[in-house]
Structure formats: structure tokens, C-alpha cells
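hey team, just a heads up i'm posting the complex here instead of the shared drive bc the drive is being weird again. everything in one block, sequence lines first with there labels, then the predicted structure for the whole assembly after. its four chains so it's a bit long, scroll down
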Amino acid sequence: MFELTLQAVFSGLLSGAFYALIALGLALVFGTMKVINLAHGELILLAAYVAYTLESVAGWSPLASLPVALVVVGICAAGVYFLISRIKRDRELNSLILTFGLAIIITNGILMIWSADVRSTGGDWAHGAFVLGDSLFAMNAELLAAGVSVVLVVLLYLWLNHSWYGRAIRAVSSSSEAAKLMGVNPRQLELLSFIIAGVLATFAGVALYSAQTIAPELGHNLTITAFIITVLAGMGSISEVLVGGLLIGVIEALTVTYFSSSLRELSGFVLFLAVLLVLPSGLSGLKMKTRKAGPTGVSPGSSEKPARQKQLQHD
Amino acid sequence: MTNSKMNNRILVAAVLITTYVLVPLLFGGNSYLLGVVVSAFTIAGIAVAWALLGNLGGMISFGHAAFFGIGAYTSSLLAMRFGVSPLLGLLLGGLGAVVASLAMLPVLRLRGPYFALAILAYAEIFRILAVELKSITGGAGGLLSIPGLPTVAGFDLNTKLGGYFTIVTIVAVSVLVYYLIRRSTYGLALRAMHDSENATRVLGVPATRLKALMLIVSAFITGVVGAFNAHFINFLEPNYAFAGTWTILPIVAAIFGGYRTLTGPVAGALVIYLMDQLLFKSLIPQGHQLILGGLLVAMILFAPDGLVGVLLRKVKGGGDHATT
Amino acid sequence: MLQLENISVEFGGVRALHDVTLTANTGETLGLVGPNGAGKTTLFNVISGVVKPSGGRMMFKGHAVSGAQHTRARLGIGRTFQVPQPLHELTVRENLIVAQRFGSGRPADPTRIDLVLEAVNLTKRQHADAATELTLTERKALEVAKALATEPKLLMLDEVFAGLETHGKRLFMESLVRIRNQFHLTMIVIEHDIETIRSLCDRVAVLNFGELLAEGSADDVFNHPEVIRSYTGESKT
Amino acid sequence: MFKQLLLKATVVAALACMSATALAEEKTIKIGSQVPLTGGLARVGLDFLEGIQVAVKQANDDNEGQYQFELLTIDDETAPAKAVAAVEKLASQGVVALTGGYGSNIVGPASGAAHELGIPYITSGGMAVGLTQRGFKNFFRLSNLEGYSKAMAGLAKMVDADKVSIVYNNVESTTDLAEALERALDKAGIESVIHSYDGSTGNFTPLVNRIRLQDRPDVIAMVGYENDYIAILRAAKILKPDIKAIVGGWSLATAQMNSEFNDVVQGVAGTSMLPYPVHFSGGEAQRFAETFTELHDKTPDYIAQFSYVQTKLLIEAILRADKAGEITGESIAREMHKTDSETLIGRVTFDENGDNPHFANHIGQHQGDKVELVWPESAATAQMVLPGRPW
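-- predicted structure starts here --
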């Protein structure tokens, strides 16, 4: 029994870290511009397919394909921002529908280019076994993905809090006036955060390709997972994204181990709703909306209005 | 003013005659084409419900599949287990969806994207439950040979043509309800709430209660449409009943037609679905939804008011959402 | 009509109102003065339910009042906002229809609305779009009209005269007096201009740093040493 | 004079005969086929169609000059509503019978619509038990879940397992097969534990570990789709549960899996009618393979084989119906019910519900670059390699 739980928690933590990697880009963009990019999952998938193409055509290992994927996905991410920046009114909702449309386009584009077949890396190392004290098991790729995720979370956190650009981005997220005072052009910063989101998506995509199998319709699930975790973390708070991801991962693994594998998704959604309703500002809310956690958490109760007026929304 | 009212009357009459007389006369014989038209109107029904919630309630939903599926299952199970007449089942299906929407009331206080995706979560949860609660729903196996619509006054509704008249009527009534709500004082208050929610509250408008009302109405319409579809296709299965298509297509349709207008969603649904089935499908056999995505993006960027919105502004400078 | 007992409000540790006890008697017009940030508008927010007080209680027509914002209008508490908030997407008349229907809880009543339109002389502009087509004076008029349409017993005016040129201001004041007498209103008026206060109000209360500084007839109050001291910093008068 | 008359008469008669034959020759018969060419089942759908085309071509070659069979095909997009629309369109184009349909949730409504229109419908792509419990007289099915579950249970018995863990995707068809397998194992006196998972599952380590530590089975049976199989097998390769064999339902013991995921599927078993690479014996099988290669220049897999057989039987029934009188929905259905023939997939008859009681699938095992048939002995092309697992 104990061994069972131990392994469940272990693989839960691993997939959780990977979930965090999936969510990171979405969280960043939301923190900066209050825009939820519903095409985020599709960008991740795109990176995965780039890796697949390079492997099947040129025989490159997934890691080697990173630079190419970075360029492709980076450009796409910039494109997404370009379109969003063209929205005339009510950006918060219209961007939702816009990126929704983009998601449909990318999914079907992938379907047309790469067909519906299931793809996966042929690299032996990726699926090799990593055994810890002959009681904990994992795929090398899983470990690598988790490691990369943690590193990227830390880097992003440091960047947001200690680099000039990072602080500028946080300024934009609180108010674009503040940014203007800092003498930075908010549009530039929004573009920057979108490109960084693209970079994060690329890492997630390559990790996905080397650890699991990919198929065109996968993007939707990725986006949902990313959004769930972003909400769990408390919109826009970076360090909590990791915590949120791990939480989901472990809960899912335990659900599979002690209840049924087909209730795995359910546990995620229920947790998601519970947090939205009970803890509107996510995990960061537990720490009284601490501001040092990257861009200020925007609570779902009210998107524009200051926290104080939030109570007005429910009567 | 009265003149334009007159014109509107003529327009409405023309539309009704076309749908109830011309279309059946022209395509009545071609059960394939009629089938496609029925599917188009099914989407139109959901699109109207979705737009009602979006326009009056100011809430974008990504989970109308939930109401569609619940409506479908409620009516089908009542018909198969307890022999309830499918015609009555349509309304009960609507009620089922309303009950489901009551479970969603807590998320009403969420705004914008949060609400949209919270509703999506509900849809997913209902889907999973439909799979897991085997004893009630028949599980993943779904329900085969669901009874069709009955014969009313000597006219057999359990035919392509009967189905056509049923769904057209459902859609027409839904649009009427939408129209009546919008021109009532409730409609005024709801429209005002978009940009000045606080100001309306101070004037005594129970904002959240009105939103809840809109959610319930929207759920009811969608549930009825779902129930109709189940009795029309005579088949149900969780992944079909709660499929994302029941959310995606109506959104595309409503946005394309103009979700702030009354007739936009219906027009959008007909144009989009018929084009998709009769044109795009032959152009791109695999992945023709790509064009739909493209249309959605283009509309948001270049014509947020949608097709009807644009036409309106062409007709009478300054598209006011109040009429048509 | 209205009694406030030891009302306190805090925003994240910052004290906006402290222990304010104040009464507005039926039929009288109470002036509310004080330097900016003294807590005048916050007091209105408390009375109209926009802000929940952290302490104290409020009686209206003899009953303790608490609960949701939209229920206050039904009780007969009407207010204006310092920055006019017309209902978007609606015409002037539609603005008043909403206010009257939901504020009074009775079915729409055209005569009442015509009456209000007349009172603030917006009759000619009733079909204009409230959010986009009104001048500043008209916006202020509409702001008052909305509050009136809810059929209030207590009307709270938040600097409705600010920014109006002297002539328009006089006309507006006259129509207000007319309205007050026509609808037998109890009023609380936030105003900086002492002259306006003198001519409009029966009684004046002075707030400073969230505390009630003085209360009484305009003359007593404005000769009150502390009040003068608190105002010498301010050059508003 | 009289002679002349006689002559005339004979001539007239001759002419009459000739014209009669002239009328009789080149009778065109339309057959409809509703298959998924896009959407989730696109690939199997295509294989399926290719088999059908082979059967039609052969029929046209054999009946040169007398009958001309015309195949009308519509893509159902793997969507029930579209499938119904497709059937109606085909009916409006005057097809006498329908062959095709893949996926129970699509075959269900499609065959329902065909039943309404009185058009016979034959498939081998719909496994759901419910399909043959609707009392349709004009619905026919070549293969059924029992055929698959029998085979999988047969393998478990062959490696004399005491306990089997069944892992299945919780969508319709896979759920049905998993439950059928549970029944078959129970009948064979083998204990079984059953685990369902949802299609979006990417990481199977916890589930496989649960099986390894709690169930401790001799055989793991998987019922899902390609991506599930790969993910489960990879998790299993990590955890290395001590089992005798791991067997999968459909689309596991296929050429594609063997070539694309060779290392992952080594030693894994799955239902399959054909070995890979296919080596056909017997006239009919050879002819099928040749025609198939001629048409699609590649070697057929078992899916095409099914659709070929079902279409062949349908055409034979249509011909019999025509000989017996006129071609109607009823007459074709009547002749179908009389069917009793040895085919590529074994003996075929149809019971009153249109099900084929003789159907039993085979089990193939990935061995190196080959898929060898290992069960039943009658069909076996090689010995089962034990333990049958990729680790």
C-alpha cells in the first residue's frame, strides 16, 4: 500500500511539474494583459509537431529541434499578439473568441499537414527507465520535462522580479499608466510577454513530444489544463503556477490509484470550480494576495475593478 | 418610425412564409437537403440561446453543450423508461437543462473569461457523469433507437418534414421570447448593466438576479433544442450529447451573424452551417472547420457587429441593437 | 427619517469614517461639508449600500437597514454620483424608465417619468442617447432625474453644482428647490460652496478626516473655530 | 407458303430471343457505402473502403456484360448526424443496399435510417451488442464483440493464466468489448479485474503500477486505441510487471504498429485476421490480395478483408435476388438470411438478428518485423513467444 502511494505521489509530482510548464505561458500572458490565449495549447502542440517533423525527416533528436521550434512557435505567438492588438473594443472577451478561432485554425491546420495518425519520438533514451531505490519508477523524458519546468519557473520568476523588463511588465499588468510613467511602451511589453509565452510553449511542446504521444485534437485539452492551473495558482501569479500544477498532478495520480482512472479528469475540474468559488484569487489568495509573486493576481470576482469593490459583484 | 415598423412587419411575414411554405415546397422531397437544413436550424436554436445570454446577460459561455446534452438525456430517458411523449419531453428536456443551470448559479458572480471557462468545466463534468452513471444513462454505450416525435393532428412529426417544422417553430418561438425580453424594462436594465452595472444597482436593479434569469432562459431553450435533436437522430451517447461542436458552431454562427442583434444568430447559423456542409466540405475534405475558425477571427477583427449588424448600419446609419 | 449611529469604515487599515453619528429629519435639507477626503462621499456610499460599514448601524424610517445595495432604492434612498453615471446604450427616457420601474418596484409609470423630465427640464432631450449625446449640465440633470425617478424619500446629492457656470448653476438650484417641495423630499447635499449651502440647507454637518467636526445651523457651524481652522488649509471657500 | 410462315415465325422468335438477351445484358445496380474518411476513424475508414472497392471490382469482372455494379460513397465525418444524412442521400440516389459503416455509435443511427428507408445494411465495423437487438430484418453484421473477446480469452487460456487485468478506454465500443471479454474470461474460469480510463490520459504509470502491485495478474488485456496502447506499454516497460503476456483489442497487431513502434510492441499480442507480411494461401485469398494490390498497390490488412467479405456476400445476395425475381430491399434481405458460405474470415451465416454466430477472430503476436498468428492453432503461423511482453 505504502509503495503504491509513494509511486503515485512521485509520478503525480512529475506530471504536475509538466502541467506547470504547460500553464506557464498562459499565466504570464494573462498576468500581463488580462488576455486568455485559448490557442496556447495549440502552440504547444505545434512545437511538438515541429520536433516530430525534424525527427522523422532529418533524424534530429527532439532536443536538437528546440531552436527551430522556438523560431516557428515564437513567430506564431507574435502573430497571435498582432491579431489581438487589432481588436477594437472589449478586448477581454473578444480576445477570448479570437484566440478560440485561432485554436480551431491551428488544430485543423495540423490535421491537414500531419494527418490524424498518432506520433511519438523513437528515441530510446527518452523512454528509458529511471529507477530510484527500485521502488520509484519514471521515464527519463518525464524527469527531464519536470526538471526543465522547475528551472523555467525559477528563471521566469527571477526575470519578472529582478530584470528591468520584468518589472516593467509587472507595471503594465497593474496599469498601463504606470508603465507610461516608467517610460515604456505597453504594446512592446505585451508583445514581449507573448513571445516569451511562445518560448515556454515550445519547451512544453518538445517535452510533450518526447514523453507522450501526440495527436491533432490534443491542443484543446492542453489549453484547458493550462487554464485550470492558472486559475488554481491565482491569475497571473508565476511561482504559484508550479504549486498549482503539482497539486493537480498529485490529486490526479491519487484518484487513479485509489478510485478510478476515468475519474482523473473529473477531479481536476471539480478542484478547479471549488477554487474559483471558494478561493477566488487562487493559491496566491492564501498568502493574502502577496504582490511579490510576479504580476499581481487578478481575482475572477472582478476583472477591472479594484479588489475592494469586488463584493459589489455578488448580492 | 412607423414606416420602419411597417417594413419590419413585412420582413417578418416574408421570412415566416419562406421558412414555413417555400422551403418545404422546394426541398420537401429531398430528405438529404432537408436533413442538412434541420441540422442548421438546430445550431440556430442554440445560437439564439447563446446570444441571449451574451447580449442580455453580458456573459460569454463556452459550455452550452452542457444544456444541450442534459436536455437530450432528460427527454430521451423519460421517453424510453417512462414512455413520456417526446413532444412533452421537449419541454421537460428544457426543464432538465434549467435544473442544471441552477447548479451553475454560483459561478454567475464570476466575470468574463472566468465564467466562460467555469461553464466549460461544468459541461465536461456532466459529460463524465453521463459516462460514469451507467445505471441511469446507459454509460458510454449510449441510447439506441430513441422514440421519435409523435403524430399530431394527423401530421406525422417523426419525418424529415415534421422534424423541420418542429425545429423551425422552436427557433421562431425562441427568437420571439428573446425579442419580448429585450423590449421589456428588464431588457433595458440588462442592456444598461453591460457598461454601468453599479449605476443600475444603485437604482434598485437586482443585477445578479436578472443575470440568473437570463442563464435559466438560455439553458431552457438549449435544452429543448437538445431534446429535439435526440428524438430526431434517435440516438444518444455522452461524447456526442456533450460534444464541443454544440458549443463551437453556435458561437461561430452567433458571432458571424452578429450576437448583439436579434436575427443575427439564426442567419449566421444557416449561412455558416450550409456553407460548411455544402461548400467547404467539398473544398477541404479533411479539416474544413479551418475556414470556420478563419471566419470567426475575421469577424471579430473587421466586423464585431456581425453580418446583420453590418447590414443594419448599411440600411439605417448607426446600427442600433434595439430592433431587428 | 435617517439616523446614523457610530458609523465607521475602514479600507485595508485606512480609516475613512470614524464613529460618525448623524441624523437627517424628515423634510429638512442637510448640508454635508468638509475638505476633500473628509469622508463625505464615503458616507453616501454607506447610506446607499455601495460600501459596508465596518462598525455602527443605520436606521431609516425607524427600521435598521442592512443588506444588498439594490434593496436601498426600494426603501426610498436615492443618490447621485459625483461623476454622473448615465446608463449606457439607453436614451434619457429609458434611463428613467429603468430607474422608476426598479427603484419603486411598481410597473412602469409614464406620467411620473414625464413629471421628472419636466422637473429637470430634459423633456426635449428625452430621446437623446444618455451616454453620448448630453452636455455636462444635462448629464448632471439626468443624474438627479434618475435618483428622482426611483421615487425616493431621501435624496442625496453629491456635488451636483460643481463645474457649472454661475447662470446654469442658479437655474439648476431653482429647479432643485422646486423638485424638493414638489416631492416633499428629505435631502442631504454634499457641497463645497458655502453660499449654495446657506441658501439651500436648513442644517449643516462638517466632516473632517472621517470624523464629525460640528453640526448645526449654517451660521453657527461656519463660525465654529475648529471648522474655520480646518478650512484655512483649504482654499475652496 | 407455310414454310415461309414457319421461317418468319422462327426468325421472329429468334429476334425476340435476341432482343430479350439484349434487354437482359448490362444491368446497372447501385450500391451505397457510408464510411468515415475524415474525423477520428478516418484511417480505418479508408482501409474499409479499399476492401469494398476490391469486392465491387471483382463482381464487375465476373459479371462482365450482364451486371454493372456502381459504388456510391459518402464520407460520414465520423459523426452520427452526418452518417444519417449520408444514408438518406445515397437512398435518394437509388442505391439498392448499403455496405460500410465503422464505429457502433455511427453504425447505430445510420443503419436505423437505412431501416426506415427499407434498405439492407451490412457492416463489420459496429460491435455494440445493442445493434443486433433492435429486431431489424435488414441489418447484417459479419463480426461481433464475442468474436474478439473469444480470441482474447483464448489467448489467456493458452498461456494458462489464472488472473487477467483488463484496462479499457471508457468510450462506447471499447467499453463493450472490455465487458464482453470479462464475460468470456468468466466462462473460461479465469478471474479478471477491470479498469477504465478516459481518452485524455497521457501518463499511465499510476494505473499500471496499481495493476502491478494490487492485481498481480498473469495477463494484461488492453482495449483502446493506438495512442493508449503505446502509452500503456511504455509505462509497463518502466514498471516491468511480471506477466506472461500482454494482449490488446483491435488495431494493435497491425502492420502500421509493427513498423512505426516496433520496439514498443515486441512480443505484444492483439486480435488480427492476418499475419504481417501477409502470405495468402487458397485461391480466393490470393485473388483478393492480387486485386487489392492491383487497385491500391499495397498489401491489404484485416480491416479491408472484412469489408471485402461483407460486400462480396451482399453482391452475391443481390444477384440471387435478381435471379429469383426482382431486386427489392425485402428480396435482398431474404437472400442475405440464406447466406452460408466459407469466406476469408471463416464460415458466415446470419441469425434472425443479422449477427454472424460463427465469427471468431485470431490473435497475432509482434515477433521482430512480423506479426505471426498464434491463436487458434488452426490458423497459427508460428508458436507464441513467451513471455509475450516488450521487457
